[in-house]
Amino acid sequence: MSALPTARVLTIAGSDSGGGAGIQADLKTMLAHGVHGMSVITAVTAQNSVGVQGVWSLPAEAVAAQFRSVVDDIGVDAVKIGMLGTAGTCELVADLLATLPAGVPVVLDPVAVSKHGDPLIDADAVGAMRTRLFPLATIATPNLDEARTLVGPDGDGQTDQSLLAHTLLELGPAWVLVKGGHAEGDPTDVLVARGRADQAFTVARDDNTHTHGTGCTLASAVAARLALGDDVPTAVAGAKAYVTGAIAGGFALGGGIGPTDHLWQLRRALPL
């Protein structure tokens, strides 16, 4: 009989009823990496391939109870943070993270809008994320648009990912990865840390338009690999390779943007 995974990874994020992003994508990604995924749901969305039809934040008591239930009994080896939605939830999650044992890596994916352009965070939450969550992050993984928003007015129209990443590094995380999928040309993600040379991860752009959930998937893959013992650059490189394959395998689902294929590696291994 196979042993259960020893690495335990907790996602704190919103639920995507369409299954392509959010908690659902996080847990699929964790399963694909062989770790045990657990969840704290911060919000429920009515969401499908064409957009977000509704967002309902969960009460603070529900968020805190989920966290304490999981962490106090099962424990955790890494945390991934996704959609939080409100300043109050950002502050609550920061308080909860402060109770974790020292050394537990935290991957912060500062979700601001959906793939369809629907807002998933309010204006006050941006400030709370900057001041309360960035200082607690092992690595933050904003895309180009999120990085500009988090930097503020100085980030408007900025295309230099390294400059944006180093500006965000001043907020306190150990590492920042600014993703370049929204830029022109082949996508490049830029990883920075204090006292280290920048690292760039570039792949050829896939013409597949079914890319719902890529940000959630990348952050969850990084968290899973950190829980398994990778250092940050190695975890990012491995997560980037995993997401690249998932994008190539993305499939049509519904009438809009379909999801990436979180099980692409398994499908390749299965006999036809």
Written description of the protein model:
By secondary structure, the chain is an alpha/beta fold. The chain has one domain: UDP-N-acetylmuramoyl-L-alanine:D-glutamate ligase, CATH 3.40.1190.20. Helix content is 37%, strand content 19%. It is built from 9 helices and 9 strands. It has helices spanning 22-32, 60-73, 87-97, 123-133, 144-151, 161-169, 214-227, 232-248, 264-269, and strands spanning 8-16, 36-48, 51-57, 78-81, 106-108, 139-140, 175-178, 188-193, 199-202. α1 crosses α7, α2 (60-73) packs parallel to α3 (87-97) and α7 (214-227) packs across α8. The radius of gyration is 17 Å and the shape is globular.
Instruction: Tell me what the CATH architecture is.
Output: 3-Layer(aba) Sandwich
Radius of gyration, Cα only, in angstroms?
17 Å
Largest sheet: 9 strands, mixed
Helix share of residues? 25-40%
Q: If you consult CATH, what is the topology?
A: UDP-N-acetylmuramoyl-L-alanine:D-glutamate ligase
The CATH class, by name, is: Alpha Beta
Strand content: 15-25%
The DSSP helix count reads 9
- Report the mean per-residue pLDDT as an integer: 92
